[in-house]
Amino acid sequence: MSDPRLPFDPIDRAGDLWAEHFGDATAMRLATSVMRVQQLMISALDAALKPFALTFSRYEVLVLLHFSKSGSLPLSKIGERLMVHPTSVTSAIDRLESQGFVERVPDQDDRRRTLARLTTKGRSTVRAATEAVSDIDFAITGLTDRQQDDAYQLLRRLRRAAGDFPS
Description:
167 residues, 2 domains, 7 helices, 3 strands, Arc Repressor Mutant, subunit A, single chain, mainly alpha
């Protein structure tokens, strides 16, 4: 099997070329690094969740339902909290429902809405899947606990400045 790593840092290379062609590459390097780290993390998390027939995005839906008081949420609320398009929520719920992890139920408070509700199988699966992603430290490698907290605080500042939540 070949080594999947590149023989150079592609972000450094892109940064050098950016600086040569467009000017300061500081923001581009950071944005590109964040996106690349996300891709690397999603790949590792998806691999850890594969035995459960889950992707990280579907795992997030299960966790969100697990955290809700009733084990259920309106599909619109799931999309809002996970920042995904309604079509993506519908697709994720379709798949989770076909796997027996969630079920669609009418909202007793508003008959126009449908809720996704975690099943017993979904509840046990989310617990086992959480153990699997915890075993790989959520794909956070190469950072101390302090560095992880520092990185979280920096990214939180970016999210707040972008309007992700109120100050």
